[in-house]
Design goal:
Blueprint: E1 7-10, E2 13-16, H1 17-29, H2 35-47, E3 53-57, E4 67-71, H3 72-85, E5 93-96, H4 103-114, E6 118-121, E7 138-141, H5 143-150, H6 155-160, E8 164-167, H7 174-180, E9 186-193, E10 198-204, E11 214-216, E12 221-224, E13 229-233, E14 241-251, E15 254-260, E16 265-267, E17 270-272, H8 274-281, E18 289-296, E19 300-308, H9 315-324, E20 333-337
Parallel strand pairs: 1-6, 5-6, 5-7, 7-8, 8-9, 19-20
Antiparallel strand pairs: 1-2, 3-4, 9-10, 10-11, 11-15, 12-13, 13-14, 14-15, 16-17, 18-19
Helix pairs in contact: 1-2, 2-4, 3-4
């Protein structure tokens, strides 16, 4: 059964679940509808269905990316926890600026339904001009979006019109964090994943409470396994959730992320599996190669292609890569390395030089 009320307020207009069901089929067939709008209505259709779960794609934080059945009860509890923690109220304005194919976008919708709040939708790839004139109580963005807004003439003022801004999805560069720290509004970095229905901890980036450590939301605690990877304890989950993130604990409620124990690369808020991209390229690159990541001011990390051997003209290769990969999968640069470093078992050491 549905865990939600039977309506949502969307851009100031209350829409019933019955209207959502009727509109979804029509909108998803309309070629003029953008992908993010189509994804929103498809997810709303899931929210108001009788199913006890929604389908969600994991990002790789706890293992190989996969599709899971995420219980609506877990999503509801996460939404209630966030609403209480940030002091949100009925009719507050929430900004949906992330696609609903990812958990961050899904959960913003769920919070609006659970808290009976007004969901304001914008194109995730747009210029966020709405923030120049309108106040938002709660929003979430990836670092790339924040970077682009701050690059605008009135970008700082736009972001300060979001009373509570969550930033997640990828690493925040030192330079970007320094700019964020000057904002007068509350800005936090989030830690979470699909399996936990979005964030389980926040790190303050602005104001007097700025910190290098994440602090768990109420009812949540953390521990480390024998490899010093973070384990998350939620009352709504029967077992601790094991991550692949190396962490340092300040307490069972506070921690700092040191790095990843696996090879997942987060670029522009999207988590990439290097092996999956390499699989798509293995028929067009003869030499040994890997996909790796390098720090990037805008993206957190940028994808790079590292080829073993002598340099050559890459024009034709770049054309083939553009044909075989999605735009967000394409490496930003190509690096040549005389010889890969290897482990004692002969595996390539994946870190970029």
């Amino acid at each position: 059964m549905t865990m939600y009320t039977n309506h949502i307020t969307l851009n100031g207009k209350q829409i019933s679940s019955a209207e959502i069901f009727c509109q979804t089929a029509e909108l998803t067939r309309n070629p003029a509808i953008s992908d993010w709008e189509r994804e929103l209505y498809l997810f709303l259709n899931e929210c108001f269905s009788d199913s006890d779960f929604v389908l969600a794609q994991t990002s790789g934080s706890t293992g190989e990316p996969k599709q899971i059945k995420l219980p609506k009860s877990v999503m509801k509890k996460s939404a209630e926890r966030t609403i209480e923690y940030f002091g949100l109220k009925k009719n507050d304005r929430l900004l949906l600026s992330l696609p609903c194919r990812y958990i961050a976008g899904k959960m913003m919708v769920v919070r609006a339904i659970i808290g009976q709040m007004n969901l304001i939708t914008v194109d995730p790839a747009g210029d966020f001009e709405i923030l120049a004139t309108e106040k938002i109580d709660f929003g979430a963005m990836v670092p790339n979006q924040v970077f682009n807004i701050l690059d605008q003439l009135s970008g700082k003022e736009k972001l300060q019109n979001v009373r509570n801004l969550l930033i997640g999805g990828s690493a925040i560069s030192t330079g970007l964090e320094s700019k964020i720290s000057t904002l007068l509004s509350r800005v936090v970095s989030t830690y979470g994943m699909t399996e936990t229905a979005s964030h389980i901890a926040i790190r303050e980036l602005s104001g007097e409470q700025k910190s290098d450590y994440y602090h768990c939301l109420p009812e949540i605690s953390v521990s480390l396994n024998e490899l010093d990877c973070l384990q998350i304890h939620l009352p709504e989950l029967a077992e601790p959730l094991q991550t692949n993130d190396l962490a340092e604990l300040q307490s069972d409620k506070s921690f700092r992320i040191l790095g990843r124990a696996d090879s997942v690369i987060i670029s522009g808020g999207i988590k990439h599996s290097p092996e999956a991209i390499e699989k798509k390229l293995e028929n067009i690159i003869r030499q040994r190669f890997i996909i790796s990541g390098l720090p990037d001011e805008k993206l957190g990390k940028k994808l790079v292609l590292i080829i073993e051997g002598k340099p050559f003209d890459t024009n034709i290769l770049e054309q083939k890569i553009a044909a075989d990969l999605q735009p967000f999968e394409q490496p930003k640069i190509i690096i040549f390395l005389n010889k890969f470093q290897e482990t004692t078992s002969g595996k390539i050491i994946r870190e970029a030089p």
